[in-house]
Automatic annotation (TrEMBL):
Protein name: Transmembrane protein
Membrane-spanning intervals of the chain: 60-78
Key word Transmembrane helix present: yes
Keywords associated with the record: Membrane, Transmembrane, Transmembrane helix
Domain of life according to the entry: Eukaryota
Length: 97
């Protein structure tokens, strides 16, 4: 027989170790449950963020269309007006200097 196994101090230490292991296992189980429950709000936040990104993309796309229209008006239409201001109408014909 092993004398260490019958020693009251070693028996008490083993009981403490098993008690610690039980407490740690309970804590780990609770943390795992908490992690599983915490995933749902993260997915919800991710879906809200992706929805906000979609809204931003729509606004940005509309902004690009308006910007393209303004640039078209600025460079094409204003350029035509500038060319007309350099021209003279004489006798129904457009004549450039």
């Amino acid at each position: 027989m092993n004398l260490n196994s019958l020693d009251p101090i070693s028996i008490h230490q083993k009981q403490q170790q098993t008690h610690r292991n039980q407490i740690l296992s309970l804590i780990m189980k609770k943390q795992l449950k908490r992690v599983k429950n915490d995933n749902l709000p993260k997915y919800r936040l991710f879906s809200e963020a992706s929805e906000e990104i979609r809204r931003f993309e729509k606004r940005f796309f509309i902004f690009l269309i308006i910007l393209a229209a303004l640039l078209y008006i600025l460079f094409v239409k204003v350029n035509c007006l500038a060319q007309l201001s350099c021209c003279q109408l004489q006798g129904g014909f457009v004549r450039r200097y």
